[in-house]
Design brief:
Number of domains of chain A: 2
CATH superfamily of the largest domain in chain B: Periplasmic binding protein-like II
Largest sheet of chain A: 2 strands, antiparallel
Distance between the termini of chain B: 69 Å
CATH superfamily of the largest domain in chain A: MetI-like
CATH class of the largest domain in chain B: Alpha Beta
Number of helices of chain A: 15
CATH architecture of the largest domain in chain A: Orthogonal Bundle
Oligomer: heterodimer
Shape of chain A: globular
Strand order of the largest sheet of chain B: 1-3-2-4-13
Strand content of chain A: under 5%
Distance between the termini of chain A: 47 Å
């Protein structure tokens, strides 16, 4: 009886989709709904939760540290977009070129950092950018007669270290995305362009970039979210969540501080929801702009 | 074709290897060691989390004694040492969710109020403290109590003293015994800088030891009597102003790591770049364990004061050891804990192993214990710490631990002190902003 039910034409599709739907409900919808609920509550250890309406959100608006975290995450996101879209694209094009030798070697070399543990990488970068004269970057700068810089104590210098870590780690991944995108561009377009006398630059801007649009869109979308939600790199670079003057504090870092360090789960949930809304707003806007939601002609 | 397949396999195996190496090894992180302290097979296994390796050593000593004295209630202890923030965060999650918490854990005084919020998920310890109540400094128990219920057992008094590197001072021709006030300290510091190019002391940016010191000398606190934060008090402005003046005169300077009790700072002190530290007495164990080159060179003295006659010390830092509600054998854990921290023997051991000033102040008078020539701390330091302690015994102030304390510490250590000593921001402005931020956070 059951067999007949599962194998029947009408219900089979639903049966196949069921595992995914279950996972989706349990691991996605339920936590999301719960978080939204928690953000309207005040949770105290050992006691129940009280509903306090929008109090958490009102508190967020006036919270200087939260605004600092949002600014940090935002700036980080924009800077990663600026660095981690054009350069990987360029590298991908260079590697894809017929004249390139050692293609596989470079692909592996660029991708390798993404496989390392963030914890280890962050620790090494923290030692590299240490404030004493013996640390790697400072000893390098001293060759040029520059005084040792306290990298991890200043806003700008701290971000230089953070972006160095991010670039080192993610260039290879983005590059591979673009490489696969490049594979989808037929050779004939380039040949036709050469015959028409196009320069390399024109070929790049008129053929490569437009036809890479789907890939670029994808990379931009995930980079926007990854930039806003960055936490571990900052945690490892400053050896904890408490960077001097909160220069390295990100939205998720602030969520961690409130939720786990201070047991204020309701407030932390509100921070998480704000992150969700901001990321969603930015991504939907940029997708709408780039024609994602237009009907195919 | 064949070589291609081989290449793929080689790359795959390399990738997997690197991936595997990237994952962390132990489930809770940190180093775990099992102490059996001579326990037999029927021993109950208890787990203990701490953020100070040396605390584990003390428990090891007490474990041996417990197992000898209680053959029918033996214990095997699993000690896990994790970095400070890590341990507290993990403990916080474990206690909130009721999953994975240890039986016994250290909680530092700065984080303790966060664990007392709402209904504490910790066992009350009043019953096991009762036998020892009259021998212990009460204010140290108050730090870990709420509404008359004691939740944590103290480790030490933590009286703040000055540690002087006499080698550097001798080079500069400075006699540390003559330093009584901050004016004396300034003169000495200028001399040290001129003659040796080294700094006399530190301007801490990531800890409030110096801020607390300045406040307690003026008989004030970070909070008022009701427990409300008041960091922009005229007393703290004055105290930080003194330190800022010292910084501008090259008497003190910021240090790598932000305060003397960090790995980077141990290196700086060991290399003789700073000649003094104003720290609680437990700093002694950091000297003996991490700064071997300074053996025989460090002298202990009362801290300088703003005006002679002011109290010269306060109890700084502290760790309350707790028993969690999810502990396997609560009675056993509580009894062992009281034995390991409050008994006379425990207090003697706390001095012997850890070099801490024990909460049972009777031990301070026991000359054979405090002046034991075999004791590693007596050997390391130029003079005996208890001679200093007994001098300042009645001047040790209490800096209260309130629900606002973690927030106060966080704001001062992350933002304010950095702004003042690294960026040169105006002290009154910085403290006013800190006060605003703290009040906003506590709303």
């Amino acid at each position: 009886m059951i067999r007949k039910f599962i194998y029947s034409q009408k219900t089979a599709p639903y049966v196949f989709v069921l595992p995914f739907v279950l996972v989706f409900l349990v691991f996605w919808i339920y936590p999301l709904g719960n978080s939204v609920g928690m953000s309207f509550q005040k949770m105290t250890l050992g006691q129940g939760a009280q509903w306090i309406g929008f109090d958490n959100y009102v508190k967020l608006m006036g919270d200087g540290v939260f605004l600092k975290a949002v600014t940090n995450s935002f700036v980080y996101m924009v800077l990663t977009l600026v660095i981690l879209i054009p350069f990987p694209m360029l590298f991908a094009v260079l590697i894809n070129n017929k004249l390139m030798w050692g293609r596989e070697f470079f692909k592996s070399a660029f991708f390798l950092p993404a496989l390392t543990s963030v914890v280890v990488a962050g620790t090494i970068f923290r030692l590299m950018f240490g404030e004493m004269e013996g640390s790697l970057i400072n000893s390098f700068l001293s060759l040029f007669g520059i005084e040792p810089i306290k990298f991890l104590k200043g806003q700008v210098t701290g971000f230089i270290a953070l972006l160095a870590l991010a670039t080192w780690r993610w260039t290879g991944v983005n590059m591979l995305y673009f490489l696969s995108g490049l594979k989808n561009i037929p050779e004939e377009y380039y040949e036709a362009a050469s015959m028409d006398g196009a320069s390399a630059f024109q070929k790049f801007t008129r053929i490569t970039v437009p036809l890479l649009k789907p890939t670029t869109l994808y990379v931009v979308t995930i980079s926007i979210y990854a930039g806003l939600a960055m936490f571990i790199e900052s945690l490892m670079l400053w050896n904890g969540n408490n960077s001097p003057k909160n220069i390295g504090l990100t939205i998720v870092g602030y969520l961690y501080r409130q939720g786990i360090e201070k047991n204020e789960m309701g407030y932390a949930a509100a921070v998480g929801i704000v992150l969700l809304v901001v990321a969603l707003a930015i991504n939907l806007t940029q997708l709408a702009f780039t024609g994602m939601f237009k009907k195919e002609d | 074709m064949k070589s291609k397949r081989f290449m793929v396999l080689a790359v795959l195996s390399m990738t997997l290897m690197l991936w595997g190496c990237g994952k962390s090894s132990s489930p809770s992180g940190g180093e775990t060691s099992v102490l059996d302290g001579g326990a037999g097979e029927n021993a109950t296994e208890l787990s203990y989390w701490t953020f100070v390796e040396l605390h584990g050593k003390h428990f090891e000593t007490m474990l041996q004694k417990w197992n000898e004295a209680n053959p029918d209630r033996q214990i095997k202890l699993n000690v896990t040492v994790m970095p400070y923030d890590d341990m507290h965060n993990k403990l916080s999650i474990a206690v909130q969710t009721g999953q994975g918490a240890p039986d016994i854990a250290d909680i530092e005084v700065g984080k303790f109020p966060d664990f007392l919020k709402g209904t504490p998920q910790l066992e009350t310890l009043n019953d096991v403290v009762e036998p020892y109540k009259d021998t212990i400094v009460k204010s140290r128990l108050d730090l870990y109590s709420k509404d008359g219920q004691i939740y944590g057992l103290p480790t030490h008094v933590g009286a703040t003293v000055a540690f002087y590197n006499t080698e550097i001072l001798d080079q500069a021709g400075v006699d540390y015994t003559k330093i009584k006030t901050w004016e004396d300290y300034k003169k000495a510091g200028i001399q040290v800088y001129e003659k040796t190019g080294k700094y006399l002391g530190t301007a801490d940016t990531s800890a409030v030891w110096q801020s607390a010191m300045m406040l307690s000398q003026q008989r004030k606190d970070f909070t008022d009597d009701a427990g409300n934060p008041v960091v922009n008090s005229p007393e703290l402005i004055k105290g930080l102003g003194i330190l800022k003046d010292l910084q501008e005169s090259n008497v003190v300077s910021t240090i790598a790591g932000g305060q003397p009790d960090t790995e980077e700072a141990y290196g700086e002190f060991n290399n003789g770049n700073y000649a003094s530290a104003m720290m609680p007495l437990w700093m002694m164990s950091r000297f003996t364990n991490y700064m071997p080159d300074l053996a025989g060179k460090i002298a202990i003295a009362p801290t300088p004061v703003i005006e002679e006659g002011m109290p010269r010390s306060y109890g700084g830092g502290g760790t309350g050891t707790v028993v969690t509600k999810t502990a396997k054998d609560i009675k056993l854990a509580k009894d062992f804990l009281a034995f390991a921290k409050l008994s006379l023997d425990a207090n003697i051991q706390i001095w012997n192993t850890l070099g801490f000033d024990p909460v049972n102040m009777d031990v301070w008078e026991m000359k054979d214990v405090t002046h034991n020539p075999e004791n590693q701390f007596v050997k390391y330091f130029k003079n005996n710490p208890f001679d200093v302690l007994n001098e300042i015994k009645d001047e040790i102030q209490l800096i209260k631990s309130t629900p606002a304390s973690p927030t106060i510490n966080n704001v001062l250590c992350t933002t304010t002190l950095n702004e003042i000593f690294e960026d040169g921001k105006d002290i009154t402005e910085a403290l006013n902003e800190a006060q605003k931020q703290i009040e906003q956070q506590l709303k």
